[in-house]
Backbone:
DNA sequence: GTCTATAACTCGATAGAC
DNA sequence: GTCTATCGAGTTATAGAC
């Protein structure tokens, strides 16, 4: 039983890396099995259909982020929480040509199994809501500054993060992610108004 | 000859729509042929391999944008040019579940044919350079305002556009694209500093 | 230029031995 | 739980008739 659970998790680990790399349709059961030294039929034992595998992938991904962000909520400073949120995304980009799982899946959205699409959407929505809350608190406390609703600012910030991952990978330049993210983060800090006032 | 050229263009039209919808790997020669009433073998006459088709797709896409943006360069106002640039992207999102061709391809980047990847990168680079120039001029003329280098601001703005398309489509809410883009555009306008000063 | 036909391959998925 | 073996469908691509 422990063996089963372990194999199941290792399948998800490998599949997640591959999908983050290539996208959903360019990853096969055979690809996943080869990296684990097992046959594609064995993967069907754990995940009867590819849609099942994809579903488990996105759900685990979201659950893990929920745990990460819940841990950040104990921090008193909204700016600090925002910074740690960005760090979580940077960890994805850093090691090799990966991007956020749900960014890749969102790009294939209309071609995904019907069961998967609401899960991708739920992941993105969760990110937006968490960000909106942090931004709203940050503005209320005077630590962060932005115009418009927290919801719009949150959606824009998340969009920037997603796009930055794609740009950085296409350019084979991980530093471009930091360039963009530092720019977007700096714009949210109140100090910007004093710096920006002198041209 | 005119027939040939026409069919070739129509193949590209259909293929572009499909790839913007589903991604590169989820589109087949059969899919394209069915919408044109021809067989997949006929498409191989015009584009011997799928990599050839993909290459022609991205090159035509870039050339068209270059024409569009060259037409905008006659406008004296950088802010107006920026607004028209956003309009060009909005046109892509508007009608149905499409996103920018190169956003989709960038998401599959490591799984694309080797010949395609530099073309995707070139498209994104061209966008960044055009934006950087407009932003630099806009700041110099006092029409636009941002901190940091024009290159960083351009990369961030393009990243936001790309991400906004993915978010809007996943949410089945085209208005979300406008929400994000309006937020990002407003932040670049100098007037923001006066509006933003009153919380 | 487009067709039919098919080769050669890969895919997701199942059956049944162990 | 993992294996071998295989099915049926889909994929890119080619050959050759028209």
Residues:
């Amino acid at each position: 039983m422990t063996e089963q659970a372990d194999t199941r998790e290792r399948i998800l680990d490998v599949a997640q890396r591959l999908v983050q790399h290539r996208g959903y349709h360019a990853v096969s059961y055979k690809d996943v099995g080869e990296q684990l030294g097992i046959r594609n039929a064995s993967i069907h034992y754990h995940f009867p259909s590819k849609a099942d595998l994809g579903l488990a992938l996105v759900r685990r991904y979201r659950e893990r982020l929920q745990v990460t962000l819940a841990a950040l909520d104990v921090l008193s400073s909204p700016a600090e929480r925002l910074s740690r949120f960005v760090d979580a995304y940077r960890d994805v980009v850093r090691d090799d040509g990966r991007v956020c799982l749900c960014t890749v899946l969102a790009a294939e959205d209309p071609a995904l199994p019907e069961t998967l699409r609401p899960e991708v959407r739920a992941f993105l929505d969760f990110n937006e809501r968490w960000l909106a809350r942090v931004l709203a608190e940050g503005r209320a406390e005077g630590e962060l500054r932005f115009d418009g609703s927290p919801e719009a600012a949150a959606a824009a910030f998340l969009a920037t993060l997603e796009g930055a991952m794609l740009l950085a990978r296409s350019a084979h330049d991980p530093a471009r992610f930091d360039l963009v993210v530092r720019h977007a983060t700096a714009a949210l800090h109140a100090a910007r108004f004093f710096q920006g006032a002198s041209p």
